[in-house]
Amino acid sequence: MAVNVSAxxxxxxxxxxxxxxIFCVPRCEFEESSEIFADMFxxxxxxxxxxxxxxxxxxxxxxxxxxxxFRCLLRVMYPRASQLLSGDQPxxxxxxxxxxxxxxxxxxxxMKKIRSHAIHVLSNNMQLSLIEKVNLGREHKVEKWFVEGIxxxxxxxxxxxxxxxxxxxWETAARILWIRDPDSRxxxxxxxxxxxxxxxxxxxxxxxxxxxxxxxxxQTMLSGEHEFFVLxxxxxxxxxxxGPREARVQLSLVKCNLCKQSAxxxxxxSCQTCNGSIQASSQPVFQMPDLxxxxxxxxxxxxxxxxxxxxxxxxx
Length: 316
Ligand SMILES: [Zn+2]
Ligand SMILES: [Zn+2]
Known about the structure:
This protein is an alpha+beta fold and 316 residues long.
C-alpha cells in the first residue's frame, strides 16, 4: 500500500536549549508566530551537515534567556486539549508573573498575537498596580500601561509611599513628584496657564462670574468663552484653603490671549449674576485647567514616543 504523509499533521520537531534544559516542540508554531525564528530556520546547515534544532544533540541554543520564562511561553504556544476544553474560556492556567514571562519573550521575538494576548490578560484579569504599570510598561514597551500609570501617579489624589517611589526608581520618582508639585518647578513661573473667563468664581454669589468687557489693550469685546492666561508665578495657591485645581489670582494680572497684554485696566468688574462688584485688585478663585497631561508629555514624551512605536509595530 502506498502511503502519504498527512498534509495537516506531519510536524517537524524543533529542539531548543535554554540554560541547561532541552525542549522539543513542533517547529511550525515558532515559524508562524515569529519572523525572527522564521528567518533563523532559513539559515544553511553547518559545515558538518548538522542543521541546528533538528536533533537533541544539536539544539538551537537560546542564550541569555531563562528557562522559566521559556516554559511559560511554550504553555501558551502549545496548549493541551484538556486546557482548551475545560470551561467556557481556554485557560492557560498561568499566574500573573508567568504572563509577564510570556510578555517578555513575545516582545523580544516579535510574536504579535501572543504579546497582544498577554497584555490583554494582564490588563483585564490581573491586578496591576500603578507602579507595575509604569515599570512593566517601560520594560516591555507597553505604551498604554506606561501612560496610564504615569497619569494616575501625577494626580495628587493618588497616594505614594516611600516604597512606591523606590520601586519606580529615583529618577522616575523625582520626575513624577516634580509634576505633582507646581511649587517645585523653577520654570513654571514663566508657564502661561490658560483658562476661560467663565472659570473665575464670583466672591459674592460663588457661581461662575459672568463678566464681559473690552480688553483694555486691544479693545476686543471679551466674554465667557474667551481664553485668557496668567503666568504661573502669579498664581497664589496658599493662604485661604482653595479646592483641588483652584487658585487665587489677582484679577488685574489676567492677560488677554489675543494681544497678550493685561486685559483689565479698570478698577472693578461687575458680576452679571448678582451685580456684585469684583475689584481688579482682589484675588477671586479661578478654576485652573488640568495641565498634568501636558506636563507628562513634556517630561516623559520621548519615552512615550518610543513605546508607542514598538506598540504600533507589534500591534498593541
Ligand atoms: Zn456674583
Ligand atoms: Zn487684548
